[in-house]
Amino acid sequence: MKKGLKILGVSIVFIVLLIGIVIIFISANGIPSYEVEKIDFKVNNSPEAIARGEKLALMLCASCHLNHQTNKLTGQKMMDAPPEFGEIYSQNITHDKTYGIGDWTDGELVYLLRTGIKRDGQYSPPYMAKLPHMADEDMNAIIAFLRSDHPMVKADPTPDIPPKPSLLTKILCRVAFKPLPLPTETIPLPNEDDTMELGKYLAHNLDCFSCHSADFKTSDFLNPELSEGYFGGGNKPLDLQGRVMLTSNLTPDKETGIGNWTKEDFVNALKYGQKKGEKALTYPMLPYPQLTDHEAGAIFEYLQTIPPIKNKVERSIY
Ligand code: HEC
Ligand code: HEC
To answer: In a mutational test of the pocket of ligand 2, which residue from 78, 200, 201, 212 has the highest number of ligand atoms less than 8 Å from its CB?
Structure first.
């Protein structure tokens, strides 16, 4: 009996020590690095590509990278990042050669946006967009915009503030968040006339699913449909004052989701933040006026076909 207790005691001490060592290791070594594959990619910056890229970047990059002091994509503190992830700062992605991306190659940009691996090999933690399913043409358009002479991306020497990821982020980057594989085949644009295909493409590539599912920690960027509580809402991004803003259930459940909404209700909410008889939608649900009614409607049509989830989410109103 006594011997058994002693063995148990020793084992517990041993396990605690081991966990301590692992934590010290992870805390000191930070976010892991990976090998960077050089990819050969030269942007095609036709005026059409730049215009399409501007629209995509306003919806996909500006919310995090636009700094309201400089009015350019010089980066800022991410006020809506859950504090458990640490202090997250988006970076300067203007043409500046020192702080911006002026000396990144087109291939390095594509590699980061596809896989999450920066050109120095470091994995960029959860708060940076990852676009494994974006069509090649849209990827090209985003890079074309970043290289264009649009005022938002003109060289600006605002220094970067390095993010300070928390221990939790560092641990998650070793066990849960992994770089995504580079697509092996070309990814075509969705067929504009196929509402379902277009709606799904936008719902996944505009990142609606990651905010509107259960939790950022269980968002599955490679297989969005496998994210926990896919579009069932309840995720907890913060507003600019650091208060939790619960995300809405967008599944077709009639009581707790949007099963009873009309397409018009949805398009007004999505493009203009309007809700009939209620306070307008607020940050971090930014309006998407860049979408055409056809595109916004396609997202609605697609969402009406996904599995309903019963999950009542009260609106966070302050
Ligand atoms: C949800 C917020 C968020 C969104 C959306 C986002 N980014 Fe970022 N981005 C970040 C953060 C945070 C970092 C810093 C990551 C790090 O240093 O590990 C970053 C880093 C970068 C970097 C690396 C810059 C450097 O100097 O290291 C590039 C390039 C970049 N983002 C481009 C983009 C583009 C292009 C888009 C749109 C397609 C985009 N980002 C969308 C938050 C975001
Ligand atoms: C950064 C996180 C985030 C992203 C990205 C996001 N949403 Fe939201 N969304 C929210 C939050 C939070 C609310 C609730 C806002 C409120 O209560 O004022 C919301 C509310 C909504 C609503 C209103 C639903 C209701 O029941 O009132 C719709 C519709 C919606 N989002 C659709 C979308 C679509 C479509 C996309 C992608 C194009 C998207 N959202 C992207 C966070 C996000």
So the answer is: 212
